[in-house]
Amino acid sequence: MRKVLVLFAAIALLASCENQTADVNKIVFSKRHWLIGDWQAVAFNGIMHNSWSLEDSVLFKAAHYVEGGDTTYSEISVIAVLDSLPVLRVVPINDRPQEYPCVVYEAERMVFESDVRKEPFRIVMQKTGQDTYTQTNFSNDEGIEYENQFLFEKK
Question: CA-to-CA distance for 17 and 32, rounded, in angstroms?
C-alpha cells in the first residue's frame, strides 16, 4: 500500500510540473544532462544508489540506500523548472514530501535550499568529472551545522 501511495505522489508531482508556460529564459533539461544515469556512492556503512532519468522535461530520480544487505531508505525525487528556476521535490518512503527551491543554477552545479527543513536544509549537487558528481547535504541539529558529502560514481 505504501508503494502505491508513493507512486501516486510521484505522478502528482510530475503532473503539477507539466502545466508550465514557455519562457525564453527557461531552463530546459535535455537527455544530455550530467545527472542522467545510474550512480552509486559509499555512504555511512552502506551504498547509496541513485538512478536519474528524464521524463517529460523533468529530471526524475529513484534512490535507495543499502546497508548490510537490507534496503533501509528509499525515495523518489523530481527536479522540475518552476518560475524559470529548478525546484527539487523529494518524496521519502517513510516521510512527508519535501521541497527545495534552487538558489544557484549553473551548468555543472545546482544548490537547493529549504526554509522549512533542517535536515538537510541545503543540498548541493556538483559535477566533478565525466563519471562522478558530489552531493553535499547541509544540516542543522539544534543549532549545530554539519555536512555529509557523497561522491557518486557512474555504474
Answer: 20
